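For concreteness, we quote verbatim a single protein encoded this way:
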Amino acid sequence: MSNQLTWLGHGTWLLSVGEHTILLDPFLDESPTAPIKAAEVEPDTILVSHGHFDHVADLVSIAQGTGALVVANFEICQWVGKQGVENTQPMNLGGKVSLPWGEVTMTLAHHSSSLPDGSYGGTAGGFLLQLAGTKIYFGCDTALFSDMERIGKVGLDWAVLPIGDLFTMGPEDSLEAINLLTPKQVLPAHYNTWPPIEQDASAWAEQVSQQTAAKPKVLEPGETVEL
C-alpha cells in the first residue's frame, strides 16, 4: 500500500502509512482553511513542531479523544501531560525515535515557540521522516538556514516548506532552501491562511521549476498526494 499525504491547510498535514495515520501540527477547528474539523481525524500518532496556537490548538482534544501518541519536544509533552494526556514521546533537536510506521528525527528550525497559555514551549523543530521507501522532510515553521544542506544529504524524496513569509521563510528563501535540501519533489505550506501570509503558489511553483531541480506540487486544502 502506498503512503499518502493530505494537506489540511496552514501547517497541518495528515500522513497515511499502511494502517497508521500520523497528524502533524493539529490546527483545524479555528483554521479558516481547514477542510475538516478535529473530531473527524483519528490519528495514532501526532507530531508537534512547536507550541504556537496555530499548531497545537486541537492537540489536547484529539490526543484525549483518540489516545494517539504525542511526539514533541520535552516541554510540550510536559504541557499536554498536565492536561491529562499520558501517551507522549518527548524528544529534542537531533534526537531520533523509531515508531511502528517509521523513523522520526527532530531537526533544527529557526523559529520561536511558546504555548497558548504563555508558558515556555521549548525549541521549535522540524521533522525528518524515514518511511519504508520514502524520506520526507517537514521544515515546519522556520527561516532559511544553511544546515538544510546536511538534512538533504539523506536523499529526500519530498520536502514540505513554508512559503508564507512574515512569520516563516517566504517564496524567495524557499528556493534557496530547496537547492540546499535537493528533494525530488516539494510541497508548499503555511500560506494563504490569513491575508498577511497570502502568496501566489502557482508563481512559486513556476520559480521552483525554473530555479531548482525539484518538482513542485501545489495542493488545495483537503487534497492528497501519493508519496
